[in-house]
Amino acid sequence: MRKLHLISCLAVLVFIITSVSAQEQYTLRVNPDEGKKISQTINMTMDIDAEGQQVSTDLVMGFDIINTAQKNNSFIFALKYTGINMKMKAAAMEMTYDSKNPEANAFSKQMHATLGKLLESNISFDVNQLGKSSNIKLPEGINLPFDKSMFENISTVLPEQPIHIGDSWTSKTESEDSGLMVENKMTLIEVNDQGYKVNVEGKMFGPDAKQVGNILGFYVLDKKTCLTKITSMTSDVDMPEAKIKTVIKSQ
Question: Which range of residues forms the domain containing residue 110?
Answer without folding.
Answer: 26-250
